[in-house]
Amino acid sequence: MSPRPAALAALAAVTLALAVYPEFGSGYGVRSTLQVFMWIVLASSWNLISGLTGYVSFGHVAFFGAGAYTGAILIAKAGWPWGLAALAGGLGACVLALAIGYPCLRLKGPYFAIAMLGLNEVLRALVSYFEDLTGGGNGLSLPTLDATVPIYYVMGASALLVTLVTYVIITSRFGLRLMTIREDEVAAEAMGIDTARHKLYAFLLSAAGPGVAGALTARDQGYIEPISVFPLATTITMIVMVLFGGKGTVWGPVLGAVVLFVAQEIVWARYPYVHPLLFGVIIIAVVLLMPRGVLGLLQIRYRLPRTI
Amino acid sequence: MNVFVTPAMLGQVVISGILSGALYAMVALGLALIFGVMRIINVAHGPLLMLGAYATFFLYSALGINPYLTVPVSMLVLFAVGLLLERTLVFRVVDAPELSSLLLTFGISIALVNLAQLLFTSDLRSVEYLAGSWVVGPLALSKARVVAFTVASALTGLSFFFLQRTRLGKAIRATSQNREVAMVCGIDVQRIHLVTFGLSAGLAGAGGALIAVIVAIQPEMGQIWTFKSFLVIVLGGAGNYPGALLGGVLLGLIEQLASLFLTTQLSEVVAYVLLVLILLVRPQGLLGGRQT
Amino acid sequence: MTSKTLGALIAALAVLAAGISGEAQGPIRIGASLSLTGTYAKLGRNQHEGYKLCEKDLNAKGGLLGRKIEFVVYDDQSTPATAVRLYEKLITEDKVEGVMGPYSSPVTEASVNVTEKYKKVMVAPLAATTSIFKRPPDKKRHYVFMVISPAEVYLEGLIDTAAKRGLKTVAVVNEDTLFSKAAASGAVELAKKRGMQVVFQEAYPKGNTDFSALLTKVKSLNPDVIAAATYFDDAVALTRQMRELDVNPKAYGVTVGGDLPEFYDTLKTSADFIYGATQWEHVLPYPGNTEFFEAYKKEFGHEPSYHSAAGYAGCLVYTEAVKRAASLDADRVREQLFKLEMRTVFGEYKVDQDGFQVAHKMVTFQWQEGKKVVVWPDELAQGKPRFPTPPWNQR
Question: C152-278+362-394: what fold?
């Protein structure tokens, strides 16, 4: 079932608007939109593993951090151009995913979540330790380069790509199999689905996006340090975005990313001293009141297609 | 920098490890109980400990009494907080997928930490009460840590007595083994959940009260305790309550020994690597717990 | 008269009135991103109060270039990434005319990339990391200026005092974060230059609370001096455990956190004899220091820390340069900042060609019976250090 022409036209219009935005947006506006793109990449990627297979990756920011450091080290120490470094970041994250996915995906439920959490901390500690390479607690400073606008485009393209990939997967057999694993893994095995292999593929795919986004962010900020690229809060935020928008849907993560980012900006601007508290309350509210997310609710109410 | 390690040094470090280990064990026991009975990973465990520390601090500042006398009070306060949290929020995610409970407790954790920041400010505080140590031969036993060890061990012992010998305790263990059968046997599972959460919070509060004399008190202090409690549970085996004891002491020893033979910086890495390794190689923990 | 004439008259009067009040252009807006929440909240707020007091004092004296100044401050939550966006916002959307620096080295390091991009002068009063200012020629920065002494000299007073009294061996411990590492490596350099031997150097992770193993190792080497590059929590824990394990150096110094009154409140007599380093003390003989101290206390209800004073001084330095340049143009102000030599409540200001602070002096104090007594450098000292530090069991 192909998407309706009106929806496609709307998408094209939005894409066009975003493409020309840097021409007349302020530096701050461009940077903020860039952040939204980054969140879309993160949220949608998380959705690929956790939304589709049900395996809750609680340390997903590890891939972001890994990509950030891979890219930053290549730029700062080996003089790579940032575009190439970003791809390397994505690749690095995938390698990491392969290394840990293979053993970890055998774990069930909460154990997988804790393992991912522990992994994130291991990475952060390791990065701090190997300071000759990573700068350790000092952080890593990149040569000054004003590339915000090109990065904006690349990040935007990444966001588009991840969304597209999600759409393709959800509408494919592969996606169907993943969701079968989510519903009942034992039955999936019994049906002949190679669950280990499928989970691993999903995991790899879910790591690439954050890896690239991490490297791009590192280049844009010009400086990274362990605590700023491996924070648990990033994982939580991307999870809440997906939950809010609708887990397991194509546009849920996008919706969640945009709405929550804007909401955070507003809350933070208006209530500077209580916004972290409000953030906690928002998380509680989303979990208790809308576990299916906006799109999930709409899907039920208005019989929207599964592939939205 | 190579330091020659003498037996006395080793002994000192082992003692330190055991002393902190008992504290880890007591705090982790609370987390283990919640996980065993309710299948919930309570990320807000650390912040509960933090509240216990603040409770002791304020009582000590206001009344000037021996801070160790405030331990029961902190426990009671946190017990009440735990009951409140369970009754209003946590009970809703008991049967939900673990993502919901993870996120909910995370949200609670952020809310508690920031509430503390607003109410108490991030001004650094500590309770100075028992300084110095008792010297036994070549070994120095930190007074504050020995007292913490003793009280923690006593509380842990009491908890086990409670779990093994009292009706309520047995009911808790029954629910943790098999909820459906427990219900069939007439156990009010809702009430069990409520009490367990309260108990767990009480243990966390006791931990906070005991370390208020040892470390600096500030709103973020609990986070690391949450991690360490996870580690202890993984080491000992989830759902295995005596395992929490072993896991706690083991963690304390590992940290100190790694710090002695490697560097203190690495001891952090060692702990986390251990977590991941154990999960991969022997997820049921060293004593064998139960998988979900 | 007709309504048209009346309207014109009113309009004319309005224009006249605006012209007379002299506020035709509005205040000079100075933007800053500060850590009002998050890890650095307490210190960031002190810095903010320093800025606010400077704004108040300056406006009371007639403002800057005939206009009042107004600070526009956002909260960066102690996160570099957020600060970067906020400086973009301040410069490109709020279109502030000047900027002042944020709190802490990591945040400053990230933010400088933005101010350099838009060629805005930034006086960064709370950045102590040398690498922000001293860069290889192809990565040089042009518009950022340092106010406080760098991290590397925090422990200089301790090392100097120890060396002068013939101590030979030093153990250095530090938290594994940017500032502490710099302070530690600076201490190691200084010790070696003075012919002392560094027998031990180890870092510990942030948040570490049990130093038993670390101190057991240190004790076995029996160093004369223990130099600890710390913040507050670790300084407290370290001191307590030194007492418990009976570690007795002849001189023991800490860095950040050791100067806070809470340090002594918490440790009580255990804190005596400890050397601390601070960028500023209100008892120092700098011009206007006492007035600043009193005014600050009155305005904000608590004593200023050196972060408050640095913020205050940084603002004074910037506005002085603007005054001398008679313009807000970045290149002219920058020229003045390079030439400027100024003495404020905070001490000396003078930078080299990299914007790196060369004149400001850190002071080392020692806790003596609950009082901070400045013992180094000699020209600012108010008392003699109690040396050597007696062993714990003799106190």
Answer: Rossmann fold (3.40.50)
The number of distinct structural domains making up chain A is 1
CA atoms within 13 A of residue B64's CA, in its CB half-sphere: 0
Asked if the model's pLDDT at residue C115 lies above 80, the reply is yes
Domain that holds residue A225: 26-230
A292 to chain B: nearest residue by CA?
B100
* Amino acid, res. B71: V
Q: B108-130 burial string, b = 16+ CB within 10 Å, else e?
A: bbbbbbbbbbeebebebbbbbeb
> What was the ipTM of the complex prediction?
0.85
Q: Domain for residue A11, yes or no?
A: no
- Within a domain: B292: no
CA–CA distance, B91 with B101 (Å, rounded to integer):
10
Residue type, A145: L
Query: How many secondary structure helices (H) and strands (E) does chain B include?
Result: 11, 2
Omega before A81 within 30 of 0, i.e. cis: no
Range of the domain at B253: 7-281
Same fold, C28-149+285-349 and C152-278+362-394: yes
Predicted confidence band of residue C21 (pLDDT cuts 50, 70, 90): very low
**Closest Cβ opposite residue B13 in set C207, C213, C233:** C213
* Total domains present in chain B: 1
CATH number of the domain at C28-149+285-349, please? 3.40.50.2300
Give the N- to C-terminal CA distance of chain C in Å, as an integer. 92
- Compute the distance between CA of residue B104 and CA of residue B89 in angstroms, rounded to an integer: 8
Reported as type and span, the H/E element at residue C374 is: strand C371-376
Residue A306 is classified by DSSP as T
Q: How far is B14 from chain A (nearest CA, A)?
A: 24
Find tokens 């049900």 and name the residue: A54
Model pLDDT, residue A137: 66
Confidence of residue C20 (pLDDT cuts 50, 70, 90): very low
Pick out chain A residues at pLDDT < 70. Answer: 1-3, 137, 272
| Three-state DSSP class for residue C103 | strand
Quick one: pLDDT band at residue C19, thresholds 50, 70, 90? very low
Residue C17: the pLDDT is 47
Confidence (pLDDT) at B4: 80
Please, what is the average pLDDT of chain C?
Answer: 88
Cβ-Cβ contacts under 8 Å, B218 against chain C? 233
pLDDT band at C351 (very low <50, low <70, confident <90, very high): very high
C79-90 pLDDT, tens digit per residue, is: 888 899 899 999
A:199-238 residues touching chain C, CB 8 A cutoff: 217, 221-223, 225, 228
DSSP structural state of residue C24: T
- Averaged pLDDT for residues B7-31: 90
Question: Is A45 in CB contact (< 8 Å) with chain C?
Answer: no
Quick one: average pLDDT of B175-189? 88
Alpha carbon C26 to its chain centroid, in Å, reads 31
Judge whether A154 lies within some domain. yes
In-domain check, residue B192: yes
* β-sheet bridge partners, residue C344: C347
Instruction: Please tell me the predicted confidence (pLDDT) of residue A2.
Output: 57
C347 φ, ψ to 5°?
Answer: 120, -155
Backbone angles phi, psi at C327, to 5 degrees: -165, 160
Listed in sequence order, the DSSP H helices in chain C are 3-21, 41-60, 80-88, 105-117, 130-133, 156-164, 178-193, 212-221, 232-244, 261-267, 289-300, 306-325, 330-339
CATH of residue B198:
1.10.3470
Whether the per-residue pLDDT at C214 is higher than 80: the answer is: yes
Determine which of B32-41, B94-103, C308-317 has the lowest per-residue pLDDT on average: B94-103
**Does the CB of B84 have a partner CB in chain C at under 8 Å?**
no
- Residue B125 three-state SS: strand
In chain C, what percentage of residues exceed pLDDT 90? 59
Tell the residue number behind the tokens 């426990």, with chain if given.
Answer: B75
